[in-house]
Amino acid sequence: MSETPSTPAAEDPVVRITGLHKSFGSLQVLRGIDLEVRRGDVVCIIGASGSGKSTLLRCVNLLEVPDSGQIVVHGTDLTDPDVDIDKARRGIGMVFQSFNLFSHLSVVDNLTIAQRKVLGRSKAESWNIANTNLNKVGLGDKVHSMPTQLSGGQQQRAAIARALSMDPDVMLFDEPTSALDPELVGDVLGVMRQLADEGMTMLVVTHEMQFAKEVADVVLFMDGGVVVEQGAPAQVIGDPQHERTRTFLSRVLNPVQVEE
Amino acid sequence: MAVSKRKRARVVRGVQYGILVAVVILVILFADWGAIRDAFFNLDAAGTQVPQIFTSALVNTALYTLLGFAFGLALGLVLALMKLSSVPPYRWLATIYIEFFRGVPALLVFITLGFGVPIAFQIKFGLYTTVMLALGLVGAAYMAETIRAGIQAVPKGQLEAARSLGMSHGRAMITIVIPQAFRIILPPLTNELILLTKDSSLIYVLGLAREEYDLTKFGREGLNETSSLTPILLAGLCYLIITIPLSYLSRYLERRTGRKKAAADTAAALEVKG
């Protein structure tokens, strides 16, 4: 993938975050985040655990309610108390670290239930869309399987297909491969790479530096609840300017190396 | 001194079996078998009980129980949701209700509904309504706690996934969380059904017509008419006809839940190896 930001569009960004603050009790998790994601961009958020990157992502669809700041997704200000959050979330796909497939429903029902109950699609239409998306993630033969019959990698791909079936404007990935055994990571990253190639706008919290390097348009390094460094992957991962970024990257890229 | 642990365990177990066998032999030797047979296995007395004990009393007991269970389950679900509500007064109300009806004997609830409420409010419930309310009110208190635990046992991620797909909180609860909660609590709910089956015998305080008799009342009437304990034994066996299949069902459901999880773990393990 290109390492320079794709097509500079005149239109508004899909996601615009300004001055975002969030605390859990006395713990300040986000301390003033500003972020713009343009249509078709893949933004990878990297950083140590506890840096606030997952909380930032969960704020984008208001699974965490920010204390202050503004989050505008597709022209809708989510922090406006009058906003219909259920409606706004339809356009924001979310993929979780722990997959969260509905365990009492078959794979296809996982993909159709929200289409029917939320978007009001017919059974036939939702089935078609589900089938298309399952084929896309390579699970065309798992339509009637129960989630427990799938491997972790298959569950995560089904979860991605579930989110895609709502035709989202933007997809959020919260450490999508962190719960997977190493040999199953590749399939999931492959699906995400394919989505990026098709022009999906994506925000990805990840520890997969290779993926960030190759697929991201913008890489954000977070530490202590602020964005320390952001820019093209070649710059942030290849030639980090800040000491904290360098320390983090050296730990992630050389995990065996013992310090001191 | 040098008795191995295993040998000592064997000796201890042998002593336990010995005591058990001795007790059984003593009971057999000293019991008055003739009197027991006359009292409990009187075929003439049994003859007066069939077929009504099956066609009427057993059916009534099952019907009373089901009515109470259905109402109790619905009310229990409402109470469980109140208990989990973010609105404090709902939580208080549910807690007060549960503590009250768990702590009061079911018999008192039957008497209050059967006689107290008609006096106080000039409302006379029919028999079925009274049974449904009385058993349901008591059962709901127990089931509410079971259902609440079940809802809390559903992983938080399930609700988050549903909400992130645009479902409202209510819809997510109804379509995703509550169905999963009921799968988890099927075994304990089956036990509640068994308890209610036995509690349904308290209906006798309401005063019943003959065709309304439940098993216990039917058996006691039989005792009065035949001066034999056989009808009581028969009634007891009829309860077992209901409760033993239920407890097998409960155990089967428990095993199935466990097996599903084991199968999932195996599948995941195989996937990793393959």
TrEMBL record, chain A:
Q: How does it sit in the membrane?
A: Peripheral membrane protein
Keyword Cell membrane annotated:
yes
Q: Which reaction does it catalyse?
A: a polar amino acid(out) + ATP + H2O = a polar amino acid(in) + ADP + phosphate + H(+)
Q: Which CDD domains match?
A: ABC_HisP_GlnQ
Record PROSITE patterns: ABC_TRANSPORTER_1, ABC_TRANSPORTER_2
Q: Name one GO molecular function term.
A: ATPase-coupled polar amino acid-transporter activity
Major localization class:
membrane
- Please state the Enzyme Commission number of this protein: 7.4.2.1
Q: Which domain of life is it from?
A: Bacteria
The record's comment on protein family reads: Belongs to the ABC transporter superfamily.
Q: What is this protein called?
A: ABC-type polar-amino-acid transporter
Native species: Tamaricihabitans halophyticus
Automatic annotation (TrEMBL), chain B:
**Single GO molecular-function term?**
transmembrane transporter activity
Gene Ontology annotations for the cellular component aspect, listed alphabetically? ATP-binding cassette (ABC) transporter complex
The alphabetical list of record keywords is: Amino-acid transport, Cell membrane, Membrane, Transmembrane, Transmembrane helix, Transport
Q: Which residues form the ABC transmembrane type-1 domain?
A: 58-250
BP GO annotations: amino acid transport
Name the principal localization, coarsely classed: membrane
- What is the membrane topology listed in the Swiss-Prot or TrEMBL record? Multi-pass membrane protein
Q: Give TM segment ranges.
A: 15-36, 62-82, 94-119, 229-249
Give the subcellular location: Cell membrane
Task: Enumerate the PROSITE patterns for this protein.
Answer: ABC_TM1
PANTHER family linked: L-CYSTINE TRANSPORT SYSTEM PERMEASE PROTEIN TCYL, MEMBRANE COMPONENT OF AMINO ACID ABC TRANSPORTER
Task: Please report which protein family the annotation says this sequence is part of.
Answer: Belongs to the binding-protein-dependent transport system permease family.
Name-wise, this protein is Amino acid ABC transporter membrane protein (PAAT family)
**Upper taxonomic classification of the species?**
Bacteria, Bacillati, Actinomycetota, Actinomycetes, Pseudonocardiales
